[in-house]
Amino acid sequence: MKLTKDKLISRIKISIEKLGYSFFKESITGAQGFFSKKLENRFYLSLGLTIDRYSDDAFCGTFYYSKTVRWSAVWGDIPDESYIRPGHLLSEIERKHYFSTENRNLYDYRWSGFDNLSIAHFVEIIKLTEVRLLNDNYLKNRIEDSIDVTKLSHYSSEVKKTVVKINSLNSSYSFIPDKEIDRIPMEWFKAAEYTLKIHKGILNKNTVKSLAADAFIQNILDNNT
User: Fold this and answer.
1) Pair 78, 117 in one domain
2) What does the alpha-carbon distance between residue 191 and residue 213 come to, in Å, rounded to a whole number?
């Protein structure tokens, strides 16, 4: 049996949500399952799941810790460590235990989406390692100091402000999608394009989609806290 996106989400969704994450239908970043939550320090912690293309049942997960929910965005001066597999946050002894291997250098372990024990171990590791990630003050300060993170965060804030009045603005749109994506109303794509125009940001179909999704998900998480 082949592990599909729907099967993976159905098997893991409840357990991840119990850790405080919210599930989002999010196809723009490339994750096959996307979860995120807002933290007390106004940061966001996201978890993206990806299915191994070379296996019938394996998947892995990767954290994204930042002031946005743009999972896997690590360009410019955004710290690479913002986007990290949980295996890198385990000790050698812990990896040996959870990964059932003698390979000391194995960090990117693949989990079986059809094995209950494998999924349970994955969830346990997420719970264990997210605390270590969030307690990394050096990383937190680097994220705070990042010019690119600040810019992306500012764009999203502007979209959240603009979307409530977007239909009253006299503006034309060239880069919005033809229809809703991932249940995101069209107003969010319009607000994203408008914001990028006003601030002279990089403007194309991909940047509009990414910004709209980022602001939309943030807005839901902001209102749930």
Assistant:
1) yes
2) 11
